[in-house]
């Protein structure tokens, strides 16, 4: 197992260099071309109003059902998070990454998954992602490991906490809406989580002189129930796989991007889709993105709801912790992990 080079430092010392370990063969037909078709798909990614969902607005709940079925991705507006807080999170994070390497290395990942660092290579010859990360566990609060929390810039810890507590509120509201559209009592799905686990992964993607030859994040689906992502307002990087094409998710200022994760796909017996997605770097601009992952507790049982099984049961019932243990052993590899939860695997 080898750690990837620090991408930020590499670009700082030589902005034009792209070492071979980062080069991927991105198939021509997979590329997001500016064709009318891709732009049209991109413009159709659903936009949902959280204040309507939380008031159980019927049409909005229908839109959520459609979005989870047909897209597995949507953007959320009217979520009630102060614009100032979103900006504070972005400003403080940018300042953190601008600190000298020695300072950031004080919270460097060391064997575990938390802290500052790079995703590691699991197999020899594996292509590296063009990004550095900061990963922290947020909820339940006793899962926080403060030795990995940044001590600079001033107030960053409080900002992370304030931002994450808003994400938690939004996540719980969305899970209640999901419970309703899945034909359950409003609080049933939250209850099945036992306790919602929440982690933050900041992806720091420096500009790349060959943006078409590398990936900031390899294709994957998230193992979560849902993921809530804050993007940069003016740099597009996230792409979702739709109808065999990579479709960009264009940022809407102050909106949050939400996607269905594997756990929700399993609970819904495949009705809701945990879609493959990836991120690409920009040629001239830095992109920082903030993914908050909401998981069921490791002891929670995840399996298709009987009433959602139409013809046949696709997934088996399993402990979420067992699912995770298998999923994180593999490299980010498309949809490989939901495959192994299928009946007969
Ligand atoms: C992730 C993710 C997308 C992005 O961290 O799982 O998919 O745009 N992030 O950074
Ligand atoms: Ni993801």
UniProtKB/TrEMBL annotation:
<keyword id="KW-0560">Oxidoreductase</keyword>
<dbReference type="GO" id="GO:0016491">
    <property type="term" value="F:oxidoreductase activity"/>
</dbReference>
<dbReference type="GO" id="GO:0046872">
    <property type="term" value="F:metal ion binding"/>
</dbReference>
<protein>
    <recommendedName>
        <fullName>Fe2OG dioxygenase domain-containing protein</fullName>
    </recommendedName>
</protein>
<dbReference type="GO" id="GO:0031418">
    <property type="term" value="F:L-ascorbic acid binding"/>
</dbReference>
<dbReference type="InterPro" id="IPR005123">
    <property type="entry name" value="Oxoglu/Fe-dep_dioxygenase_dom"/>
</dbReference>
<dbReference type="InterPro" id="IPR050295">
    <property type="entry name" value="Plant_2OG-oxidoreductases"/>
</dbReference>
<dbReference type="InterPro" id="IPR027443">
    <property type="entry name" value="IPNS-like_sf"/>
</dbReference>
<dbReference type="InterPro" id="IPR026992">
    <property type="entry name" value="DIOX_N"/>
</dbReference>
<keyword id="KW-0408">Iron</keyword>
<comment type="similarity">
    <text>Belongs to the iron/ascorbate-dependent oxidoreductase family.</text>
</comment>
<feature type="domain" description="Fe2OG dioxygenase">
    <location>
        <begin position="195"/>
        <end position="296"/>
    </location>
</feature>
<keyword id="KW-0847">Vitamin C</keyword>
<keyword id="KW-0479">Metal-binding</keyword>
<dbReference type="Pfam" id="PF14226">
    <property type="entry name" value="DIOX_N"/>
</dbReference>
<dbReference type="Pfam" id="PF03171">
    <property type="entry name" value="2OG-FeII_Oxy"/>
</dbReference>
<dbReference type="InterPro" id="IPR044861">
    <property type="entry name" value="IPNS-like_FE2OG_OXY"/>
</dbReference>
């Amino acid at each position: 197992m080898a750690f990837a080079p620090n991408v930020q430092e590499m670009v700082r010392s030589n902005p034009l260099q792209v070492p071979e370990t980062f080069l991927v063969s991105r198939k021509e037909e997979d590329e997001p071309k500016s064709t009318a078709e891709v732009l049209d798909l991109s413009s159709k990614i659903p936009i949902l109003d959280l204040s309507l969902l939380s008031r159980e607005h019927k049409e909005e709940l229908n839109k959520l059902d459609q979005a989870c079925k047909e897209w597995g991705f949507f953007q959320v507006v009217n979520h009630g998070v102060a614009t100032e807080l979103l900006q504070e999170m972005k400003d403080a994070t940018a300042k953190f990454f601008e600190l000298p390497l020695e300072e950031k290395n004080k919270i460097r990942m060391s064997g575990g998954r938390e802290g500052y660092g790079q995703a590691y290579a699991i197999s020899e010859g594996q292509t590296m992602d063009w990004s550095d990360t900061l990963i922290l566990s947020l909820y339940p609060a006793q899962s926080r490991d403060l030795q990995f929390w940044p001590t600079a810039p001033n107030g960053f810890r409080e900002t992370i906490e304030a931002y994450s507590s808003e994400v938690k509120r939004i996540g719980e509201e969305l899970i209640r809406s999901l419970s309703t559209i899945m034909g359950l009592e409003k609080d049933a799905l939250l209850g099945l989580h036992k306790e919602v686990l929440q982690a933050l992964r900041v992806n720091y993607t420096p500009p790349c002189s060959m943006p078409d030859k590398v990936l900031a994040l390899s294709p994957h689906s998230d193992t979560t129930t849902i993921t809530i992502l804050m993007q940069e307002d003016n740099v597009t990087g996230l792409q979702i796989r739709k109808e065999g094409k990579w479709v960009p998710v264009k940022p809407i200022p102050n909106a949050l991007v939400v996607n269905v994760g594997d756990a929700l796909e399993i609970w819904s017996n495949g009705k809701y889709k945990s879609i493959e997605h990836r991120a690409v770097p920009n040629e001239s601009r830095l992109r920082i993105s903030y993914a908050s992952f909401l998981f069921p507790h490791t002891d929670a049982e995840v399996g298709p709801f009987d009433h959602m099984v139409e013809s046949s049961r696709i997934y088996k019932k399993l402990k979420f912790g067992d699912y995770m243990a298998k999923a994180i052993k593999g490299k980010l590899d498309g949809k490989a992990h939901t495959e192994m939860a299928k009946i007969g695997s």
